[in-house]
């Protein structure tokens, strides 16, 4: 089998592509959420009638129309699609049709194996769910976070547990066979008992994949400020106990962990791409990034005005082997059982994994990881011992280690 991806128009095998669409709108800014910290609240909560949101949707269409011809001429064939954010399910029927219309006009989507739409419970109803199915989505990811109403209020959610459960059931009734729910463990003050109740409830639902994220105390969030002010506290040991308890309980119900936070089957193909660089991807929208032909292209998060005014250009274009990117890629890969495969890394970035790991900032990060778990470096690539993945992830998040090493690198 050839290790070189065909890139020219005459290529025999088309390189697969992931298409990501970013929707930086939500009904609220949740206290824990580190996905939209850079989006001003007024922009995050824009309604479909507002001119900036309308311009954003037009800009998405324009960006797709600009870049699709080049990608097609380089032989790329979309295999996976993911609409996230923010809250992709917040879009109206007309907005979804505008963007899917552009994608269908400009790409051949006949090879798509997985098309996921991500959303929050209060923004889904049976009509919308049917529309998602009709638009070609075959997987849905629902942000549930918790089944405890007190917890949901405390973390700033605008839905309650019953609405979350109704959204999951309605998704199943609309014909979704691949349903993921997002849950979080390890909030300040959360004990293992609460996690146990949450998982026991979760496994009664028609869900085949769970994302159980250990809470990350990320800068710029309301909850992080509370931790700083001392009004709440992170207990790393309790976080780990909670995660391990959730993992064991899920395993007993047949949902195996294939990466830190990810359980069940089939695996989420789009996460496989981001975490293990298994194919190139194009990200449309403000806050989206792309990895195309060894270049990392980025549109800054939160810059909706900039993006809507000139969607054809990216805010930055960097070689994928740049040390700050390698740090990010490896940090993600080390949360997976397989880790980073050396040949795949070389294929995506154009540099050998061995050389990339020799960069001082990358070496420093790997040394720190190695103090928290058994790092395996061999011909195949680099990965953490399976039993150490979660503890390394949780302890590193809680001391902001990745953030610190990124600053050093910068
Ligand atoms: C981009 S959000 C989209 C979900 C959707 N907007 C919703 O709220 O239901 C993806 C997921 O990231 C997780 N997440 C966000 N911030 C987090 C944090 N600080 N720690 C752990 N998980 C977090 C949440 O579980 C969230 O559902
Ligand atoms: S968790 Fe979802 S709804 Fe809440 S702020 Fe983040 S992206 Fe928006």
Q: Care to give the gist of this entry?
A:
43% of the residues lie in helices and 19% in strands. With 410 residues, it is α/β, with parallel strands linked by helices.
Please explain how this structure is put together.
With 410 residues, the chain is α/β, with parallel strands linked by helices. It folds into 2 domains: 16-273, Aldolase class I (TIM Barrel, Alpha-Beta Barrel); 321-410, no CATH class. It is built from 17 helices and 15 strands. A 9-stranded mixed beta sheet has the order 7-8-6-5-4-3-2-1-9, sandwiched between helices. It has a 3-stranded antiparallel beta sheet with strand order 10-11-12, with no helix packed on it. A 3-stranded antiparallel beta sheet has the order 13-15-14. Residues 1-12 and 401-410 have low confidence and may be disordered. S-adenosylmethionine (SAM) binds at residues 26, 32-35, 84-85, 87, 118-120, 143, 145, 182, 184, 213, 215-216, 218. The site of S-adenosylmethionine has 19 residues, from strand 2, strand 3, strand 4 and strand 5.
Would you spell out the secondary-structure blueprint of this structure?
Blueprint (H helix, E strand, L loop, with lengths): L15 E8 L17 H4 L6 H23 L3 E9 L7 H14 L7 E6 L6 H9 L4 E7 L3 H6 L6 H13 L4 E8 L6 H11 L6 E6 L7 H8 L6 H17 L4 E3 L2 E3 L4 H8 L3 E5 L4 E4 L2 E4 L5 H6 L6 E4 L3 H11 L6 E2 H8 L3 H5 L2 H13 L2 E4 L2 E4 L4 H10 L2 H9 L1
Parallel strand pairs: 1-2, 1-9, 2-3, 3-4, 4-5, 5-6
Antiparallel strand pairs: 6-8, 7-8, 10-11, 11-12, 13-15, 14-15
Helix pairs in contact: 2-3, 7-9, 9-16, 12-17, 15-17
Bound molecules: S-adenosylmethionine (SAM) and iron/sulfur cluster (SF4).
S-adenosylmethionine (SAM) binds next to β2, β3, β4 and β5.
């Amino acid at each position: 089998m050839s290790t070189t991806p065909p890139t020219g128009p005459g290529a025999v095998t088309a390189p697969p592509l992931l298409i990501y669409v970013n929707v930086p709108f939500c009904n609220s800014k949740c206290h824990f959420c580190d996905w939209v910290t850079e989006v001003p609240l007024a922009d995050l909560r824009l309604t479909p009638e507002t001119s900036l949101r309308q311009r954003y949707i037009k800009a998405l269409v324009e960006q797709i129309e600009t870049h699709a011809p080049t990608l097609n001429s380089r032989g790329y064939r979309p295999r996976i699609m993911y609409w996230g954010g923010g809250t992709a399910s917040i879009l109206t029927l007309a907005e979804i049709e505008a963007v899917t219309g552009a994608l269908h006009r400009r790409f051949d989507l006949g090879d798509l194996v997985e098309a996921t739409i991500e959303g929050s419970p209060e923004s889904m109803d049976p009509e919308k769910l049917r529309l998602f199915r009709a638009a070609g989505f075959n997987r849905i990811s629902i942000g549930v976070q918790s089944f405890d109403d007190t917890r949901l209020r405390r973390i700033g959610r605008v839905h309650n547990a019953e609405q979350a459960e109704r959204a999951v059931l309605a998704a199943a009734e609309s014909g979704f066979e691949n349903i993921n729910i997002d849950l979080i463990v390890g909030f300040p003050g959360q004990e293992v008992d609460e996690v146990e109740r949450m998982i026991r409830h979760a496994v009664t639902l028609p869900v085949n994949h769970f994302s159980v994220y250990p809470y990350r105390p990320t800068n710029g969030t309301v909850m992080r400020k509370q931790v700083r002010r001392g009004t709440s506290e992170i207990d790393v040991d309790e976080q780990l106990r909670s995660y391990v308890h959730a993992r064991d309980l899920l395993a007993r119900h047949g949902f195996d962990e294939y990466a830190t936070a990810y359980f069940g089957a089939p695996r989420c193909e789009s996460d496989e791409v981001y975490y293990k660089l298994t194919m190139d991807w194009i990200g449309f929208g403000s806050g989206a990034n792309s990895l195309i032909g060894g270049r990392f292209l980025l549109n800054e998060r939160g810059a909706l005005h900039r993006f809507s005014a000139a969607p054809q250009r990216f805010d930055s274009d960097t070689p994928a082997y740049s040390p700050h990117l390698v740090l990010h890629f490896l940090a993600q890969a080390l949360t997976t059982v397989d880790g980073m495969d050396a040949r795949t890394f070389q294929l995506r970035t154009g540099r050998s994994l061995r050389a990339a790991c020799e960069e001082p900032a990358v070496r420093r990060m790997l040394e720190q990881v190695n103090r928290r778990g058994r790092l395996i470096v061999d011909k195949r690539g680099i990965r953490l011992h399976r039993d150490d993945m979660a503890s390394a992830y949780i302890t590193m998040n809680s001391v902001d280690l990745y953030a610190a090493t990124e600053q050093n690198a910068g």
